[in-house]
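As a warm-up, study this chain.
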Amino acid sequence: MRKSYHAAHIYMILGLISGLYYREFTKAHHFDGDTQLAVIHTHLLALGMLGFLIVLALDKQFQLSGTKLFTSFFWFYNVGIAITVVMMFVHGTETVLGSKVPEAVPWIAGLGHTLLTVGLVLLFILLGQRLNESTRTEPTESEPAKTTA
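Now compare it with the structure written out below.
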């Protein structure tokens, strides 16, 4: 669970820094057009911070961490966010500077999105397993739940 907490905290910090970078960098270069720098802030806060806070709550409820699937989800998802955000940073910075965006940037960003998708699929597989396990251990209507005195 600590991994999710630390990841959420790091993404919160990066999200705030990226918003500051966008504002100050575009102001310093007198840029007022559209740039991908404008959405890095929200990507880091939504996919990173909020995503991992949700995972933290799910982990508390369903004991997700400590499994191979969780570890795989964690790394695929984080690498996916990192690649996606770095490519947004490169694309946005090149746009503000008036430079040509390298052709590889969208392809690499697509790889980041693919890794994010793999991570989310792994998370849902793990959640599905945990939900199936919890329904097998819950008492049925014909079996009353045991109470302790």
